[in-house]
Amino acid sequence: MAARCGETAAQRKPSTRLVALEWLRYDPLMPPDPKPNRLKARLPRGFADRRAGEIAATRRMLETIRQVFELYGFEPVETPEIEYTDALGKFLPDQDRPNEGVFSFQDDDEQWLSLRYDLTAPLARYVAENFDALPKPYRSYRVGYVFRNEKPGPGRYRQFMQFDADTVGSSSPAADAEMCMMAADTMEALGIPRGSYVIKVNSRKVLDGIMESIGLSGETHASKRLAVLRALDKLDRLKLDGVVQLLGSGRKDESGDFTKGAELSNQAIDRIVNFTGWDEKGSGSKSLQSANSVTLANFETAVSESAAGLEGVSELQSIADLSEAAGYSDRIIIDPSVIRGLEYYTGPVYEADLTFEIRDDEGRPVRFGSVGGGGRYDGLIGRFRPEPVPATGFSIGVSRLAAALAALGKLDGAADVGPVVVTVFERERIADYQRMVQHLRAAGIRAELYLGSGKMGPQMKYADRRGAPCVVIQGGEEKARGEVQIKDLIEGAKAARAIASHAEYREARPAQFAVPEDQLVEAVRSVLARHGLT
Description:
Elements: H1 16-25, H2 52-71, E1 75-76, E2 82-84, H3 85-88, E3 104-106, E4 112-115, H4 120-129, E5 138-147, E6 159-168, H5 173-189, E7 197-203, H6 204-212, H7 222-232, H8 235-247, E8 250-252, E9 258-260, H9 266-276, H10 292-302, H11 307-325, E10 332-334, E11 348-359, E12 365-376, E13 391-397, H12 398-407, E14 420-422, H13 430-442, E15 447-449, H14 456-465, E16 470-473, H15 476-481, E17 483-488, H16 489-497, H17 502-508, E18 512-516, H18 520-530
Parallel strand pairs: 1-5, 7-10, 14-15, 14-16
Antiparallel strand pairs: 2-4, 3-4, 5-6, 6-13, 7-11, 8-9, 11-12, 12-13, 16-17, 17-18
């Protein structure tokens, strides 16, 4: 029988029979197993470890995004990574996966809990739970990991980071336009030049109008409409042939897995693809010159018999007008190819699309594509409230954006400079060295005491691998003179490149100098200042 939660080791006594069996198996004369049954260290599929350089680069990037979001008046809020499953809702694109794309488990009170799959659904729960205490409209941003129980693949992870901003409590298209403007400002603040990105905008209402025109209106066709949207959202990844298969009978991927299609007629498929486009210039309803007025006129013609579709065109017109008034008309473009796969979107949807080219795995030029997106979700918070609560938001895919910045040479992937390392020359004087470390830390200087067992050579190698700017050395002779030696590793590396032989290097001792022990802090500060590290 399984042990109950909360039992101590003493309460879980092994049976007499089990103890006897263990003694029978034990032989003190038997040599130890040369191949002990050790656990294999392995990373789960779809997850990634991150090292210091990547973490430091991400932190700097997040700080830039945070500054832009706060410039727009958004304030931070945090929600837990685990929510009640029913609070998250069933909105993921890959509902054919176990648990409908969500990692879930049952609590001891038999309630189902899930790891969040995005940052929007938890925000909806938070706003509903704290509705009366929050100002309306409520403007917030959040950053954190989300989890998808999806089939992993190249560039497709089960855990990834998002940075979101949302405005809750405003139904005005101005709130959507501002999200698009903020997305554009974020791209430029991160160093992506104007002309290398575009914020593309469409509307779920317009898309609903198109589907009305092929007979997919009403609740009875809700699941089929969603299948159509999710198929169209995969155009970048699957290209036209794959999307057409998903709009038709279905598609079998490279692994042999089959995804059931929307089962539309060929005529209906042509109508939808001809409206949204097929990822080629001049396809779909978008203006060849990206003129919003022309695109919107095409939209209006396409949904002329749909009240919902015409309402969507009107909202897009407002966004275009506001963008033009604020000077963003060259960066915020109405585009019928923007779909967004999540079920909860109800109005305008948008994406931050990077237009520069990179090389794929086979060396072919490809456009980088989307690094973020969002839209209006007026029904999500209303699941918890008696009254409707309008909301709109934008989400940045942090890892994908970091990859884009790296491709542009705009991401500093170097780890932060390491700590000053105080070496241990004489083990019996460890307290003296610890005191030096504490003096440096008290002065606000990042420092550490070498805690390994190596002699001076390994200690210097350790400091180098840690990225230490300098090391502190005090042997018996320095102690007798009341001095410490400081070795500037950054300057020493430069000098070493100009010295021909190892013997000459040892004789020159580049960038190493002695100071009185009571001037340790000032001397280290001068080294850090020399390299701009203060």
